[in-house]
Amino acid sequence: MMKNVKVLGPGCKRCDAAVQMVKDAASKAGVEVSVEKVTDYAEIAGYGIASTPGLVVDGKVVHAGGLPKAEDVARWITA
Amino acid sequence: MSATTIRQPSPAPWLAGTLAGLAVWAALYSQLIPFSEWAVSLLPIDPASHLGQSVTFFFYDVPKVLLLLTLVVFAMGVVRSFFSPERTRALLAGRREGVGNAMAASLGIVTPFCSCSAVPLFIGFVSAGVPLGVTFSFLIAAPMVNEVALGLLFALLGWKVALTYLVFGLGIAITAGWVIGKLKLESWLEPWVLNIHAGTLDLPDVTVTWPDRIRAGLDSVKEIVGRVWYWIIAGIAVGALIHGYAPEDLLASIMGKDAWWSVPAAVLVGVPMYSNAAGIIPVVEALLGKGAALGTVLAFMMSVIALSLPEMIILRKVLSVKLIAVFVGVVATGILAVGFLFNLLFA
Fold this sequence. Notes:
The structure holds two protein chains of two kinds. Chain A is an alpha+beta fold.
């Protein structure tokens, strides 16, 4: 089943880097993902995070603030 | 928790590597003076001339400042791996003002914070029940009392000035946040901010090992020193010119402690200026050497670093113009007070 990943962030450099990390991890693991960028502040705040970029996998927040570790991203999208 | 235990790599090589790195650092640091003398001797310049003085100053200060900054930024990167804005928020939610302001300002130093995250952080704090004034204490301390400012002050002006800056920077953040809290300005937030109901956050456990923390330290060295090194070189070059060419006491009459108006003038000039600590502190050191008073120079530096136009523009998304004006006014008043106090205390 396709995973839905949202990257929460107003569009800073790290947010783009996080999008790329998710794509890389997905192609490496052979998982199909749809990556969506969320830049609206109200929507970002609705997820309850206080730092960006944040990662949401299938509706669940898994990460907030800075770049996650690559092995954690791989774990989240294959779980 | 996963059923299979992932075997963690042994931390020993990382710790050994860190120790070796520190040893190399110490060896380089002990060679600063021989290095600057050697570098100047290669150039066809009389060491006693104005140019010679400037160049010697430059070749001594650049490696010294970069070395000390690298060490401070690395240490701070490791410390920050123990904190996150989400954890800080949980500590601050529902705190009373006063204690809350002091905690927020202190946590502002050690919590990883990037100005591009200022808006999500602000909303995240306020919507989770962190009082407005306490949130401001955090937002004032986080950019003002940072590792680059402290590291550079320590490197160029000694630990006494660095410690003083730390104490008074915290003091301003605590007091200004407390005052803003007392003014009860919640209605001056942009209306949509108050309507946000943040979901509860339950992040999955991510194991953070010592190698991860050391890597976090190295990452912040790469990121921060990589971003500010040319500012530092430019700042030291300007400082070196002032050092070698400006006559002693040039600034005593306009930036000295007897010119009381120099403190407000320094703040007025500093607020619209935007630089980071890296560019401004080497210049500050040179100004001090030419008769400028410490309070005046600290006031200038704090207003350049703590109040920046780009951050206001970002915060305009959540704060009304009135609230931004109060924020700037309260912080600038605090900086003025510190400037006057210093000129009074350190004659």
